[in-house]
Design brief:
The complex is a heterodimer.
Chain A (H helix, E strand, L loop, with lengths): L2 H33 L3 H9 L5 H18 L1 H10 L1 H20 L6 H31 L13 H4 L2 H25 L2 H32 L8 H16 L5 H23 L2 E3 L9 E2 L7 H28 L22
Chain B lengths: L1 H40 L2 H35 L1 H36 L5 H30 L4 E3 L5 E3 L2 H5 L2 H31 L4 H36 L1 H7 L11 E7 L7 E7 L2 H7 L9 H12 L8 H31 L6 H9 L2 H16 L4 E3 L3 E2 L10 H32 L34
Antiparallel strand pairs in B: 1-2, 3-4, 5-6
The chains are: A mainly alpha, B mainly alpha.
Chain lengths: ~350, ~475
C-alpha cells in the first residue's frame, strides 16, 4: 500500500475510533440529566464514563494532529474553512471538559445545574458540528486553486452536511443510551432502555436517509457499498437489541453502526480528502495534500509502536472499571460521592 | 489587521494556556513524590497530602487540557499558510505528542483518580508516575516543535520551496531544544514547588495540620532549591546558544545597539528602545554581559545595528529588530525574580535545618505571596522567546506577516478572540475560586482509610462491597 493511502486509512481509523469511544461519552453527557432524575443518579450516570472520557477525547486530538503531520494541506484548508464551526466546537469542548471536573466541587444546586447544562449542550453540539464538517468534506466546499476556502460560514451549512451532523448526533445519543444501559442497574438502566427506543427509531431513519442521500451524490453507482449496508443493519440491530436484556450486544451493535457510518464517509472520500465545489481540479487529494516520504515513514514507525500500546492500556483501563455503576443503597449526602460498586 | 489580530490571539491563548501547564507538570511530579513517600513509609500524612494536592492538580488539569485544545486547533484555523508550509516537519512532533504523551497522561489520570482502593497499591502508584511522565513527554514534543521554529534543523527544501523533514534525530538534538526543554521542565518544577510551598505556608501560619504541612514544605523546598539554581545556569546557557543562532533575540534583550567588546550588563535603564536608541539613564556592571553571552570576560556581542545591516543583506529590506522593550524587561523580570527565589529557597532551607521553619512568621507570609512569581517568570520567558524571534515565525524561513489564513477575515478572528477572552476570564475566575477554596479546606480526616483500605486488592475484590466509598475528589 502506498504511504499516502496508508495514512488516509490511519486517519480514518482515528476518526472512527474517536466516534466509537467519545461517541458514547457524548451520548451519556447529553442524556445524563434525562436518565438521572436526582443529583445522585446524575452523578452515577457521569461516573459511568468518569475514568475514560478524557482518554477518549484524545482520539480527536490525535486525529487532528495526525492530519497536520501527514496531510498538512488538508489540515490547513479544513481548519481554516470550518473556522466559526470549529470555534463553537472549541467552546463546547471547553465547557464540557471542565464540567466533568467542576460540577462536583460545590453542593449549590445552581452550580450543579450550570455544569449539567454545559455538559448537556456541549455533548450535543460537538458531534453535530463535527458531523456537519465531515459531511462538507464529501459534499464539497468552495475551494480555489491555491486550496484556500473562498466561502463563508453559511456555505458550511449545506443540507447534506446538516443531515450528516444530525445523523452522527443521533447515533451518539443511541450509543450513549446503550452504553448507559450496559453500565448501570435498576431504574437508571430502565430509563436508559426507555430512551433508547425512540432514539433507535430516529437513528434508523437518519442512517437510512444518510445512505440514500450519499448514494445520490455519487454519480457512478446506485448500489450501497458493504460498509453502508453494514451501517443500516447495525443500527437496526442496535435499536432492536436496546429493548432486550442483551445490553452488551446492543452496545456492540451501536458501536458498529457508528463506526461503519463514519467509516463510509472516508471510503466515499478516497482518494480525495476535501472536495472542491468550485472545480474538481481543485480537490484536495491524498497525493496533493500529503507530506514527504521521509516524514510519513517516521510517522508510520511512531504510530506502529505507540498505537497498539495505547489500545493495550486503554483496553486495560476499560477492563479495570468494567463493573456496573449503581447508586449507593442508603442515599447519602451529595458530598460523600457515589460508589461505583459492582 | 488580520495578521495583528491573529498574533494577539496566539499570544493571549498561549500565555494563558502556559499558566496552567507548568502547574500540571510540577504538581504531578510532586504528587507522585508524596504518594511514593506514603508507599515507602506508610505514614498516613503523606496519603492525605497526596489526596489534597491531587485535588488541586485535577482542578488545574481540567483548565490546562481544554485550553490546550485551542492551541492544537489554532495553527490550522488562524495560521493555515504556516501550517501548509511547515506541516511536513512541524506536524510530526505534534502528532507524536498526542500518541505518546496525551493518551498516556489522560488514561492513567483516569485510572489514578478512580483507582483509589481498587487498584493494587503499587500499580496505583505507577499510575501517578505515568501521569507525571506523560506531562513531561508532552512538553518535550512541544519544545521540539517550538525549537524548530527558533532554529530550523533536519530539513531540506522541496521543489515547491517548502521545508521537508530529512533527519528526525536532528530535531531531537537541536541545541535550542535540549537547553530549552530542560529549562522548561525546571521552571515547571519551580512553579509546582512554589504552589505547594505557598499552600503549606498558609496552613502552617495558622498552625493547622503542622506535622503534615511541614512535610509538604520540606519536599517543596528540597525540589525548589536545586531547581532554581539549575534553571539559572541552564537559562544562561540557553542564552549562549541563542546568541549563536538568534543573535537578534539576545542583542535586543540587552538593548545592545552598538557592537561591544568587552560588554557591560545593563541592570536598569530608561529609554534605549526601538525609537530612542540611546538610554537616558543606565546602571551597568562592567564585563558581565560578555560573561553571560559568551562565557568569557572579553567576549564580544554584535549590536542590533550591525545585525540589521547583515539581515538586510541576507534577506532583503525590512525591519529585523524585535521589540527591544519587551526583550529587555522580560529578560530582567526572569532574572531578578529568580534571584529573589534563590534567596527565599536558601532562607527556607536554613529555617528547616535549624528547626524554626513552622514558627517563622515572615518567611511563611512571604512564601504565600511568592506564588505569584513563577507565573510572571514563565510568561516573561515565553515573551522573550517568541517576541524575540520576530519578525520571523520560523527563523530565517518564513515571516509572521505572511503566515496567517488568507480565507479567514479580521472579523472572524476578532469574534474568536473576543469569545476566547470571555471564556478564559470565566474559566480563570472559576479556577481561582476553586483552587483557593480547596487549598484552604485542609486535609481529609486522619486515618480515613477509604482510599487505602483494600490495599493489594485488585478491582474485582471490591465487587459487592457496598460500603466502598469513592474518594471525595471523584465527583
Amino acid at each position: 500500500m502506498h504511504l499516502h493511502t496508508l495514512w488516509f486509512v490511519i486517519l480514518a481509523i482515528l476518526w472512527v475510533g474517536f466516534f466509537v469511544l467519545e461517541g458514547f461519552d457524548f451520548g451519556v453527557g447529553a442524556l445524563h440529566s434525562l436518565v438521572g432524575r436526582s443529583d445522585t443518579e446524575r452523578r452515577v450516570a457521569i461516573n459511568t464514563i468518569g475514568p475514560w472520557w478524557d482518554g477518549n477525547e484524545v482520539w480527536l486530538i490525535v486525529a487532528g494532529a495526525g492530519m497536520f503531520a501527514a496531510f498538512p494541506a488538508w489540515y490547513a484548508t479544513m481548519f481554516s474553512a470550518l473556522y466559526l464551526a470549529l470555534l463553537l466546537v472549541l467552546v463546547a469542548l471547553m465547557a464540557r471538559g471542565v464540567a466533568f471536573e467542576f460540577r462536583s466541587k460545590s453542593d449549590d444546586p445552581r452550580w450543579r445545574a450550570t455544569w449539567t447544562w454545559c455538559l448537556t449542550l456541549g455533548s450535543l453540539l460537538i458531534p453535530l458540528l463535527i458531523g456537519v464538517g465531515l459531511g462538507d468534506l464529501l459534499n464539497g466546499l468552495p475551494i480555489d486553486s491555491h486550496h484556500n476556502f473562498t466561502g463563508n460560514f453559511f456555505n458550511l451549512l449545506t443540507p447534506y452536511g446538516l443531515w450528516t451532523g444530525v445523523t452522527l448526533l443521533g447515533l451518539c445519543l443511541l450509543h450513549g443510551a446503550t452504553f448507559l444501559k450496559l453500565r448501570t442497574t435498576g431504574e437508571l438502566r430502565e430509563r436508559a432502555g426507555a430512551a433508547a427506543r425512540p432514539l433507535g427509531w430516529a437513528a434508523i431513519a437518519l442512517v437510512v436517509g444518510f445512505v440514500i442521500w450519499t448514494l445520490s451524490l455519487n454519480s457512478s453507482t446506485d448500489v450501497p457499498g458493504p460498509v453502508q449496508v453494514l451501517a443500516v443493519i447495525a443500527v437496526v440491530f442496535a435499536a432492536r437489541l436496546a429493548s432486550s436484556d442483551h445490553d452488551g450486544w446492543a452496545f456492540t451493535a451501536s458501536a458498529v453502526a457508528i463506526a461503519s457510518t463514519v467509516g463510509s464517509i472516508f471510503i466515499d472520500l478516497y482518494p480525495r480528502v476535501m472536495v472542491s465545489s468550485t472545480d474538481a481540479a481543485y480537490n484536495l487529494t491524498v497525493n496533493n495534500a500529503a507530506s514527504g516520504h521521509y516524514a510519513l515513514v517516521v510517522m508510520t514507525i511512531v504510530t506502529v509502536i505507540f498505537l497498539p500500546l495505547v489500545l493495550l492500556y486503554q483496553g486495560w483501563s476499560f477492563y479495570i472499571f468494567r463493573a456496573r455503576v449503581s447508586s449507593p443503597a442508603p442515599p447519602r449526602s451529595p458530598d460523600s460521592g457515589v460508589s461505583p460498586a459492582a | 489587521m488580520t495578521n495583528d489580530l491573529a498574533r494577539w490571539q496566539f499570544a493571549t491563548t498561549s500565555i494563558y494556556h502556559f499558566l496552567f501547564v507548568p502547574v500540571t507538570i510540577g504538581l504531578a511530579f510532586l504528587v507522585a513524590i508524596l504518594q511514593t513517600a506514603w508507599h515507602r513509609g506508610g505514614n498516613d500524612d503523606y496519603r492525605r497530602l497526596t489526596r489534597f494536592f491531587g485535588t488541586l492538580l485535577l482542578i488545574n488539569v481540567a483548565v490546562g487540557v481544554v485550553t490546550g485544545l485551542v492551541q492544537e486547533f489554532e495553527f490550522g484555523m488562524n495560521w493555515s499558510t504556516y501550517s501548509r508550509y511547515v506541516g511536513d516537519v512541524f506536524g510530526g512532533p505534534l502528532a507524536m505528542e498526542g500518541l505518546a504523551a496525551f493518551f498516556l497522561e489522560s488514561t492513567f489520570l483516569g485510572l489514578w483518580l478512580f483507582g483509589w482502593g481498587r487498584l493494587p497499591k503499587l500499580v496505583h502508584l505507577a499510575c501517578i508516575w505515568l501521569v507525571a511522565a506523560g506531562t513531561m513527554l508532552s512538553a518535550m514534543f512541544i519544545m521540539v516543535a517550538n525549537s524548530w521554529m527558533q532554529h530550523p534543523v533536519g530539513y531540506t527544501m522541496n521543489s515547491h520551496g517548502e521545508p521537508q523533514l530529512s533527519n528526525v534525530a536532528a530535531l531531537f538534538t537541536n541545541p535550542t531544544f535540549l537547553w530549552g526543554y530542560v529549562h522548561v521542565i525546571l521552571a515547571s518544577l519551580i512553579t509546582g514547588a512554589l504552589v505547594m510551598l505557598a499552600v503549606a505556608a498558609w496552613h502552617l501560619r495558622r498552625q493547622r495540620e503542622v506535622a503534615a504541612f511541614h512535610k509538604a514544605a520540606q519536599i517543596s523546598v528540597a525540589v525548589l532549591l536545586p531547581s532554581i539554581l539549575l534553571t539559572m545556569f541552564v537559562g544562561s546557557e540557553l542564552g549562549v546558544v541563542e546568541t549563536k543562532y538568534q543573535p537578534m533575540k539576545i542583542a535586543a534583550a540587552e538593548a545592545q545597539w552598538e557592537n561591544c567588546k568587552p560588554c557591560s550588563f545593563s541592570l536598569f535603564q530608561v529609554g534605549g528602545g526601538n525609537n530612542d536608541k540611546t538610554p537616558s539613564q543606565i546602571i551597568e556592571v562592567p564585563y558581565l554581559l560578555s560573561l553571560l553571552a559568551t562565557n568569557s570576560f572579553s567576549g564580544g556581542v554584535t549590536g542590533l545595528n550591525q545585525l540589521q545591516r547583515e539581515y538586510e543583506k541576507k534577506y532583503g529590506p525590512g525591519n529585523y529588530v524585535p521589540d527591544v522593550f519587551i526583550q529587555y524587561w522580560s529578560m530582567r523580570i526572569m532574572a531578578y525574580l529568580a534571584s529573589l527565589i534563590v534567596l527565599l529557597a536558601l532562607w527556607g532551607g536554613w529555617l528547616l535545618h535549624r528547626g524554626r521553619f513552622d514558627r517563622s512568621k515572615w518567611f511563611l507570609r512571604l512564601s504565600i505571596w511568592a506564588v505569584v512569581t513563577p507565573f510572571l517568570m514563565n510568561t516573561a520567558g515565553w515573551l522573550l522567546t517568541e517576541s524575540g524571534r520576530q519578525p520571523w515565525i520560523v527563523q530565517g524561513l518564513m515571516k509572521t506577516a505572511n503566515a496567517n489564513s488568507p480565507s479567514v477575515s479580521a472579523t472572524e478572528i476578532g469574534i474568536s478572540l473576543a469569545v476566547f477572552v470571555l471564556v478564559y476570564i470565566a474559566l480563570g475566575a472559576v479556577e481561582v475560586v476553586l483552587m483557593t477554596r480547596y487549598a484552604r479546606k485542609g486535609l481529609e480526616p486522619d486515618g480515613g482509610e477509604s482510599g487505602s483500605a483494600p490495599s493489594g486488592t485488585p478491582a474485582a475484590g471490591a465487587a459487592g462491597v457496598g460500603g466502598t466509598s469513592i474518594p471525595a475528589l471523584t465527583y
